[in-house]
Amino acid sequence: MKKQDESTIAQPANVQRVKKKGKHSLVKTILRRFFLVLFIAIVLVFTALILVLNMVFNGPSPTARNQLTMTLIEASATKWIPALFIGEDTVAEIRTGENVELAENVTDVSAVVISRNALTSANDEWAAYPDGIRIETVSGNTYNATVMIVRNPEQVYLGISTHEGFSTSIPGKRLTAAIEDEGAIAAVNGGAFNDNGTTASYVGTLPAGLVYSEGECVWTSGKPSETSGFAGFTEDNILIVHKDNISKAQAEELNIRDGCCFGPVLIMNEEINMEAYNKVSGLNPRTAIGQRADGAVVFVCIDGRQPSSMGGEYADVIDIMVEYGAINACNMDGGSSTVMLYRDTYGIYGEAGAVQMMNSYSLLQSEPRKMPDFWLIRPAEEE
């Protein structure tokens, strides 16, 4: 009887241990199956993506191939992808169409007439905009865009991230910080800079090409790209666009006070750059600067890389510039650099006095990039 009692007492413990072991085994089995399914799903999605890309790159439509190629190579993080499918030589051939062919090399300054009386007199266009800045939104088939018109070009200048000399050890500056540090009423991203498509600390520290800020040449090194030009204001507040990367000597001859490099030139002396207009370029965020014949400055920011706005081509930017009366215009840095900020002093678009983001960030972006230079608009002087 005693042995039977001991056996009876021991048995429940053994059974309980077996049950615990069974629960652990069930959890492990579920986790293994979950991760197996997840792995298979990732492989299937990746395979499907490769097949789709290959279909576009090597399919029957050269237009689709070219547009996808330009969309990817204009983004620093994805510019290596097209060569995997079509080779470096074909990519180079597609990019060749970006070369700028214009009748003239540089802006004819006599075409812009800035009247001091026109800048201060009552005008229906500016009646509702006491700070001399008008902002509107436009849209196309593949994009949403924001247009900023600045009445007085004298207020527009190129800000820089440091006054201690550009260096890889000195970080670039986000536009949200720049507008506050400079006390500006508006800000738009600027020209080319060192970027290898990573988040390395030196990205955004060094400009590429000539940079002038408030009458001083602050940088001369680097070449943005074969297609880049120059955009800058003279001491007479006329926007100069040049289809090439100009030298310091050329800038001095043109009497440049503020400017930076990027491109291509979109409009010069009222002539549309048809090479850029007809080029099958990528659908990406875009930034551009232009000037009307009366001196007013036009900034365009096209949103991209998001469900509601895939992005725009050069032709889209040119169409907007023409619609808003620009007779000279140049493409600026775009992609994830595209940002437009405005200090809404009078509460026209939102909270009075608050700095507002006027365009939308690209997908997976939560704040502006760090950059070495940017266009700023200083408050108008009291008359």
Mind explaining what this structure looks like?
This protein is of the alpha+beta class. It folds into 2 domains: 2-96; 109-377, no CATH class. Helix content is 31%, strand content 23%. The protein has 8 helices and 19 strands. The strands form 5 sheets. The protein has a 7-stranded antiparallel beta sheet. β1 (133-139) and β2 form a beta hairpin. α2 packs across α3 (81-96). The longest helix has 56 residues, at 2-57. Mean pLDDT is 85; it is low at 6-11 and 15-19.
Main beta sheet, described?
7 strands, antiparallel
Secondary structure class reads alpha+beta
Into which percentage range does the β-strand content fall? 15-25%
Neighbour order of strands in the largest sheet: 1-2-14-13-15-11-12
Number of helices: 8
Number of domains: 2
Portion in helices: 25-40%
- Which of globular, elongated, flat, extended, rod-shaped describes the shape? globular
Tell me the number of strands: 19
Task: Compute the CA-based radius of gyration.
Answer: 28 Å
Average predicted confidence as pLDDT: 85
| Terminal Cα span | 112 Å
Order of helices and strands: HHHHEEEEHEEEEEHEEEHEEHEEEEE
The low-confidence parts are 6-11, 15-19
